[in-house]
Amino acid sequence: MSRRDLERLAKAMLEAESICMVACGTSYHAAMVGRYVLAKLAALQTDVVIASEFQESCRVSEGSLVLAITQSGETADTLKAVRAAKLSGARVACLTNVVGSSITRESEIVCLTHAGPEVSVVATKTFAAQVAFLLALSIELARMAGEISAGEAGRLMRELLRMPGSIADVLESTAAPVRRLARELRDVQDIYLIGRGIGYPIALEGALKLKEITYIHSEAMPAGELKHGTLALIEEGTPVIAVAPPGEMRRRIMSNVEEVRARGAKVILLSDERTRGAEKVILLPEVGEIFSPLVYIVPLQLLAYHITVARGQDPDRPRSLAKSVTVE
Question: In terms of DSSP bridges, do strands 109-112 and 190-195 run parallel, antiparallel, or are they unpaired?
């Protein structure tokens, strides 16, 4: 990523009266991670809006900044949202993977993920690249806003730069247990995923990967919402994947794990520590809470892949889906 573009975007966000991130699908989930980290590190409030709902749900003006996140730079709903924002006088920035795409021509500030071509319809490495950029942006914003010291910012950036090694470790350490789990889940009808805090967008992205290529109904929700309806669907043997990264939310999500276990759910826990309450634990390396999306999404991506292969389906070309959604 370009340091100059990162600093320029950070400065524009600090100057803005309001900030809105617009995106679709996987990019929307990356934006949700960004919202969490911006609030936690930089004490910066941002709205995250699904691009197709932008005109109906979000009001921007000359003092606003809209950050559009789109892998292809051609997503029709995101482009429409950006054009509407510009008509209202808002400044527009973008984060994309494609140089010269339509979104870059609509934006005042252009930031690139430099993830390289992604051939599969299903977004995986581009999610990691978007999250990594938003983490770096949050660290820079927090430093510029005086929320963290230059020394702390440097420490966090060094930790971010170590994440590729952690991801490689996860790919190796979880390969066998995830493959076994995929065989067990191959023929299920439903999979539920729960998370709290930064774990919620990880659960959302995991559910999206599962439904995109396995064609199994997969639903993610904030763990606290279980008791507002979904708990009625949990019965003996229902698979529930609990995303439990480090941080203050872990203790609370374990109480939700007990709720679904009491109803017979088959609980699969993603965590960096073994704990009672789950039928299976996918052990992950210890990383800082804000960096956990980069690590915790990997076994969910692998699970979707292995279930799909076990069902005899093509994981790269799911039915009815396109890499770039260019229609509204």
Answer: unpaired
Task: Look at residue 255 in the predicted model and tell me its pLDDT.
Answer: 87
Res 1: pLDDT: 64
For the chain, list the domains and their CATH numbers: 3-161 (3.40.50.10490), 168-310 (3.40.50.10490)
Closest to 101 (Cα-Cα) out of 123, 78, 85, 121: 78
Contacts of 162 (CB under 8 A, 6+ apart): none
CB-based contact 242:278 (threshold 8 Å)? yes
Kindly report the pTM of this predicted structure.
Answer: 0.94
Residue 91, helix vs strand vs coil: strand
How far is residue 205 CA from its own chain's centroid?
5
3-class DSSP state of 256: helix
The two three-digit tokens of residue 128, written as one number: 């990691």
Query: What's the whole-number average pLDDT of the chain?
Result: 92
